[in-house]
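Quick one:
INPUT:
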């Protein structure tokens, strides 16, 4: 393959990834970006399902709902930090990476991003989620939830690490939405919004 073809592949794939990141990650940062999106909505952690049931049983369903909403609000707030890390990973992608991704499966680019960005994103998200809990009022809501639950007779007390849980769920949501966009660009010709994208993904169509 000549150098121009190589540049086309790398450039086209980077353009596609940057488009997907911009489009999907931006959606997640909006109010209700996580909360109203059933594909990525963060629910109660598994170990707190009993908390949810117990609160609803004693008439505190709205408090349980507020707790879920606040987890999603913190994720929406923290996701604003993701884009620069993704852009950096895309910028540093080699031609070999780009070629392998282009000829790979429907989520090869998303998998590449997971492999290259999960650690830096977790390190960035975790403190942001922690401060987002305070910013969106989640810390008070959850302190109230845990306090109310722990006062219910005969329950085993809980003290979950909600920062770690929400960080991991926020990351899952970000990658899930990028995968949606990647599949869209790979399978829908109309999603290829530039001549370069059309040219590069035509190679994938003919593999």
């Amino acid at each position: 393959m000549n150098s121009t073809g190589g540049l086309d592949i790398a450039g086209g794939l980077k353009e596609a990834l940057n488009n997907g990141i911009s489009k999907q990650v931006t959606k997640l940062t909006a109010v209700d970006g996580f909360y109203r999106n059933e594909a990525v909505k963060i629910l109660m952690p598994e170990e707190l399902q009993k908390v949810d049931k117990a609160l609803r049983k004693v008439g505190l369903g709205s408090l349980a709902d507020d707790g879920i909403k606040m987890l999603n609000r913190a994720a929406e707030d923290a996701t604003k930090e993701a884009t620069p890390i993704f852009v950096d990973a895309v910028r540093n992608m080699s031609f070999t990476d780009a070629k392998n991704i282009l000829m790979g499966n429907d989520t090869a680019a998303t998998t590449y991003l997971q492999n290259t960005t999960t650690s830096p994103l977790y390190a960035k998200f975790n403190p942001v989620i922690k401060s987002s809990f305070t910013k969106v009022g989640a810390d008070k809501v959850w302190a109230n939830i845990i306090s109310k639950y722990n006062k219910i007779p005969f329950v085993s007390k809980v003290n979950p690490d909600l920062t770690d849980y929400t960080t991991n769920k926020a990351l899952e949501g970000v990658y899930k939405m990028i995968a949606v966009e990647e599949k869209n660009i790979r399978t829908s010709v109309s999603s290829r919004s530039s001549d370069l994208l059309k040219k590069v993904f035509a190679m994938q169509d003919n593999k």
